Amino acid sequence: MKIFPTPARASSGNNDKAFEAAYGKYYKSLFYLAYLKVKDYSDAGEVVKQVFITAYGMKTVDWTSPDLADFLARKVVAACCGRHAGIGSMLKGRVAPAEKILSLIK
User: Fold this and answer.
1) Residue 55, SS3 per DSSP
2) In angstroms, how far apart are the furthest CA atoms of the chain?
């Protein structure tokens, strides 16, 4: 799936390449993480797509950062909690430790 740049980002060719590299590297793992939370292929794909679109619009995201996987995984978990109320009650307001999230996506 190709996500097209917004007009504000259209001129940042290097950023687009870094985004596409990150998308290719992390999509499957983030999809799996989302699927573990929502138990639906369509919803999992939609969650991951929205996380990438939202993150792409953020000017502060460094697509080459070593912390990017952690950042994206937390966004996916948060999106799953918002999308399915049952997940939020299951987590009881706690965010999973970064190590646990990273073990799922690496």
Assistant:
1) helix
2) 43
**Residue of 36, 49, 45 lying closest to 87 (CA atoms):** 36
pTM: 0.67
Q: The tokens 């699927």 sit on which residue?
A: 35
**4-23: buried (b, 16+ CB within 10 Å) or exposed (e) per residue?**
eeeeeeeeeeebbebbeebb
Tell me the domain boundaries of the chain: 27-105
pLDDT in tens, the chain (106 residues): 444 444 444 445 678 899 999 999 999 999 999 999 998 899 899 999 999 998 998 888 999 999 999 999 999 999 888 754 444 444 444 445 555 555 555 5
